[in-house]
Design brief:
287 residues, alpha/beta, Rossmann fold, Hect, E3 ligase catalytic domain fold, 7 helices, DNA_bind_recombinase_dom, Resolvase-like_N_sf
């Protein structure tokens, strides 16, 4: 039987995190879908201090919901978006466990228990997460920093760690669900479907586009000469251009589309371009 999930998010205006509510919800929904659970409702608060944590409106509403309806899981994206003090998190975990409710964090994709709770906090349990602590860092996929560029659809920033356990800022990986959509777009176009119809089909199926937008023809078709649009972005075959260089490096771990499928799309684009050029020439002759 599927599990019912309440999601909790918390916006912080502090310097150590820049995690917007929409981003937390995006990854929360994706984690719920991957596990086959049922999303029930989300609650959120502004970050106004840990002293009044249980008095914050979102927290109060979440616990009121628990009293009214059967809930199996309370989910947050990262524990510092739930609360950033060990003692408060421990008390919250105990209260949820007493009601038979599990606490989960979408990152690092695990259930939070009394045994592993302390692994997510710094040694001094009375303090909040500290800047510079590898435990305190928010995963890159939550950071909205001016130095992080928007990634192409199909990729996401990931909270990878180096050998010292510190987060690698700006580390990107393939997003499996979005990558499947990219490959599907390439296949449909290679098999003869027009970008307009592809966009309409994806929208009809409720498939979210880049940054949660609806799909448009231009998003898929783009401009081949400029390398814009899903069908023209060489990043999907693992091509990475370094600043100051004209040639590409290739990262196999970031490849989404095979060379064979990429070439099929290019062949069809060539045919379409020739047809369009011929039509333009005939119109010119007739005028």
């Amino acid at each position: 039987m599927t599990k019912n999930v309440l999601f909790y998010a918390r916006h912080s205006a502090g310097d150590h995190v820049h995690a917007c509510l929409e981003t937390q919800l995006y990854y929360g929904h994706r984690f719920i879908k991957e596990n086959g659970w049922t999303f029930v409702k989300s609650y959120a608060d502004e970050d106004i201090g840990e002293v009044v944590f249980m008095a914050q409106p979102g927290v109060r509403k979440l616990f009121a919901h628990i009293e009214r309806v059967t809930v199996d899981i309370v989910l947050c994206h990262t524990l510092d978006r739930l609360c950033s003090r060990f003692d408060i998190a421990s008390r919250l975990l105990s209260e949820l466990a007493h009601k038979g409710i599990e606490l989960w964090a979408a990152d690092p994709c695990e259930r939070i228990t009394a045994r592993n709770l302390c692994d997510h906090y710094i040694d001094d349990r009375s303090k909040m997460f500290a800047m510079g602590s590898h435990i305190a860092h928010v995963p890159d996929d939550l950071r909205e920093d001016e130095h992080l560029v928007s990634l192409p659809f199909g990729y996401r920033y990931a909270g990878a760690c180096n050998a010292d356990g510190q987060r690698i800022f700006g580390f990107k990986v393939v997003d499996p669900l979005a990558a499947d959509v990219v490959r599907r777009i390439f296949r449909m176009y290679a098999e003869g479907m027009a970008p307009t119809k592809i966009a309409a089909l994806l929208n009809a199926e409720g498939v979210a586009g880049p940054r949660g937008s609806i799909w448009r023809e231009a998003t898929i078709r783009g401009n081949r000469a400029r390398g814009t649009g899903i069908l023209n972005n060489p990043v999907y075959i693992g091509a990475c251009k370094q600043a100051g260089r004209d040639d590409y490096d290739y990262a196999l771990a970031l490849r989404i589309v095979s060379d064979e499928l990429w070439n099929r799309v290019k062949d069809r684009q060539d045919v379409a371009a020739e047809r369009a050029a011929g039509l333009a020439e005939r119109r010119k002759q007739q005028s």
